[in-house]
């Protein structure tokens, strides 16, 4: 990533993770309130389930780009490690272009869908269905922005901590017989 694109990517990453985390915290409070009112007070308001559903979808969509840029999306990284350098670069370009294409198409299609449901209101919250549906185009747009900032470089490869522990125990002289 060039220096010019590092600061916007870092800002978008921090901001989207902060907002997604806040949405998850509010989601937890809404669920706990619903559980309390259902089992202690005798009846839960309908808006708690609807709010929880919209908040979890929004949080996932906002964090999607950050997870991608950090290499956390599920993919088969074995192929990337086994390919020769030139083919690995070609695979990185392919992954980047595919991600960018899907993100831009997803942003456009979900934006059109969110606008098409503007005449409907949600049952529990009484708001236009466009409001919660806008999390999808915003999330896809953030993914596209972060993909552009990252460029066609290889994504980080996450390692399983249990694999690291197994590797460490294999080389530890005290644990080997």
Plain-language structure description:
This protein is mainly α and 177 residues long. It is 73% helix and 0% strand. The protein contains seven helices and no strands.
Set down the secondary structure blueprint.
Blueprint: H1 3-39, H2 46-69, H3 78-82, H4 85-116, H5 130-133, H6 135-150, H7 161-171
In short:
The chain is 73% helix and 0% strand.
**Gyration radius, in Å:** 21 Å
Termini separation comes to 47 Å
Shape: elongated
Number of helices: 7
User: What is the tally of beta strands?
Assistant: 0
Helices and strands, in N-to-C order? HHHHHHH
Low-confidence stretches: 172-177
Strand fraction equals: under 5%
Helix/strand structural class: mainly alpha
Main sheet specs: none
What's the rounded overall pLDDT mean? Answer: 84
What brief labels describe this structure?
mainly alpha; 7 helices; elongated; 177 residues
